[in-house]
Amino acid sequence: MMKNTLRNSKLITLLFMFSSLVFNAQEYDIVIKNGHVIDAKNGIDKVSDLAIKDGKIAEISKSISASKAVKIIDAKGLVVAPGLIDIHSHNFHGTEHDAYLSNSFTALPPDGFSFRNGVTTLVDVGGAGWRNFRLFKENVIDQSKTRVLSFLNIIGSGMKGGAVEQNIVDMDPKLTAMVAKQFPEHIVGVKLAHYSGFDWTPTERAAEAGRLADIPVMIDFGGSQPELSLETLFMEKLRPGDIFTHVYAHVAGRIPIVNDAGEVEDFAWAAQKRGIIFDVGHGGGSFLFEQAIPAMKKGFVPNTISTDLHTGSMNGGMKDIVNIMSKFLNMNMPVADVIAATTWNSAKAIKREDLGHLSKGAVADVAILNQRTGDFGFIDTKGKRMKGDKKLECELTIRDGKVVYDLNGLAATPWDK
After folding, report:
1. What is the DSSP code string of 5-28?
2. pLDDT band at 10 (very low <50, low <70, confident <90, very high)
3. Taking the model in full, what pTM does it have?
């Protein structure tokens, strides 16, 4: 009896020691092997292995032993990038009628439109103002698996459309900045959009709120007859680091970046050199190939690529962020630059340099993308088509070290094992 007890005790000890050795050998939760890692911040653009532990990036090197990982993901032939950051989206979804993009049916719930496209951070731009930001935080930000950030609308009641957005009296720089300072983890900028009229007051108030809170301003500019000067906007009203969205639009009430001769206006070059951020903001009516293709041929490249996601754009030419990224690939923008424009450039634009890179110790937000070749077509917001032979597709997304989307089961165990 005693001998059996001792034998069992030794067996248990040996099993414990063996399991401890196995556990200790598996230093990482996930190792992504053989992928083409692109990380603009750290200048990485090569095939490497990447390890994740406890929700953080643990290591990037030429080769990491598979025996060190609990889970192996083979990314051979695929691009491994930081989780994508979409800095122009509309996600203050709700049930309020006639509220456009503020607690409304027109805005979209984040989680349905993020991970499947490699996006781990969405930035709602202007859905909420200082009056209703707390509702947005409680109903959307706090309920979403996606990281959701906010540009606070200079209109106190947010982007409710129509007459509400013409109310200069409700454009309060002091109160906007006050709420922004109360929620620095979530509010990353100030938004002005949809004002119609030959008046600099809305721009000046948004810019003042940005200065008071020390955060960037994003301007959706236009709607004035006669047109307000873009050169004045870029060189006098905005600061370096402020953001001009819908860069490749040609809409009534706003001067286009590319003129009738197919040349990029001199003031646009000067503004980008000065530090104004030019953002795509594709949307349902703000991206034309007749603007984008000549600009790209001249070398006028966007700083950031974003969607302007809402119900009016999601099923049109925009579709999703990887579709827009694919458009720029087919306008001869290198894949590393396309990735930078949706990761590190975007993180810097919103002053969230903890995001958008794969540095050791950074949050493990990762997008694995497949660059397909074939015969593809891409549509702008006029319904015009551009042919292309390259297209990006999201294979797998990791948020905080956890697999949250896996198109083809790269991280899954075979059913018969």
Report:
1. HHHHHHHHHHHHHHHHHHHHH--E
2. low
3. 0.94
